[in-house]
Specification:
Layout (H helix, E strand, L loop, with lengths): L1 H18 L1 H26 L33
Helix pairs in contact: 1-2
Amino acid sequence: RVAEGMLVYYAVIGAAGYWDFLFGFAYLIAPHLEDVVFFGGISYMWDCYVEPSDPLNQYINSVTILDGHDNIWNEGLPR
């Protein structure tokens, strides 16, 4: 099912690029590449903090922000 969705998604990108390359790039390919870079950066930074004296400490090896200033994408728990 996921493969079918990806096939349709990339077929739409290919059709739009064939119809008008600039439109296909500006509205479909560039945002897709931006998302890949953005979420790749988040994935890289999420687990980048390690305590050298205790590398198995599960509370240090990942980032958890409680009561942060910004609530991006409504990630915070309701109060």
